[in-house]
Amino acid sequence: MKITASQTARLEFLARVTDKECRHLLDTDGRLFSNLFTIEEAKKIELDPILAERLDAFVSRFGRLQDTVGDKLLPALLAALGEMPGPAIDNLDKAERFGFIQSADGWMEMRRLRNQMVHEYIEDLAVLSSALRSGHAFVPALVAAARRCVAEAGRLLTARAVTPTPKA
After folding, report:
1. Alpha carbon distance 135, 142 (integer Å)
2. pLDDT under 70: residue ranges of the chain
């Protein structure tokens, strides 16, 4: 299958961004969850600006990586594979069939969790601590899915690089 120059540039860019976002999320995850994040930890947010910044960074990076992979890299990969990108749930079903993600349902669960962390954490510390622990538990699956997508992009780009150009 032929990948256009614009698809190549887009995949290269998204692979670099995704790789960087994985590293940043793992770094923040390691710092925020060096101890179990409990309601007692959540209560410290008002008094500890460093903890508050780590929390914000974790929520932001978790959501950003999921958005980059699900909304940008995955559709670009599907198009490069000759699949027609469609609605998010259809793209996730295709990603599951290709083995890029473990399950479309699991991805949607991560999405709901991301929305919960973004919209509800300030009001309810029990919800915050529970959602953050759940987010922490999802990080390995999210990063693994992102890295599988980056690896597939690399495979496609390498295949394009070694495909001889037809002579005119």
Report:
1. 10
2. 1, 120-122, 161-168
